[in-house]
Design a protein that fits this description.
alpha/beta; Leucine-rich repeat, LRR (right-handed beta-alpha superhelix); 5 helices
Length: 141
């Protein structure tokens, strides 16, 4: 997509929110986000693109070495996608310092697992509030 776009080598922020990219669009975009094509990319805004689990997984393999902020809120990311992101942050193939996952579809169990996968990383993660076991029992769940 951007492979021959030499002027974009200095691009710091890419904002594509509300573009209905979906998983196919993100899968097509992901190779162009790599450090080979956009070596200075620091911030990626993909808010509200309905990328789902497959789109989240595609981002995990994009090799964005300098990416610091990734905004993925309201993207219909489920358990598989959030766990893929958690593994990528945990093994440092996705080295973000801030990751917004609010408004997605993953379960509290997947959010708990995400936290375990990323517990030793210095990442500011925006997750839905996870009720404690006591709160879940009191609420019938």
């Amino acid at each position: 997509m951007f492979a021959s776009a030499k002027p974009l080598r200095h691009l710091l922020t890419l904002s594509l929110e509300h573009n209905e990219l979906r998983c196919d669009g993100v899968a097509a975009l992901a190779p162009s986000l790599s450090e080979d094509v956009l070596p200075q990319l620091r911030t990626l805004h993909l808010h509200a693109n309905r990328i789902g689990d497959a789109g989240a997984a595609a981002l995990c393999g994009a090799r964005m070495a300098k990416l610091m902020v990734c905004m993925l809120q309201e993207n219909e990311i489920g358990d598989d996608g959030v766990l893929a992101l958690g593994r990528a942050v945990g093994d440092e193939s996705l080295r973000v310092k801030s990751l917004n996952l609010l408004g997605n579809r993953f379960s509290f169990g997947a959010a708990d697992e995400f936290k375990k996968l990323t517990t030793k990383k210095f990442v500011d993660v925006k997750l839905p509030t996870i009720p404690t076991a006591r709160e879940r029992m009191a609420g019938g769940g």
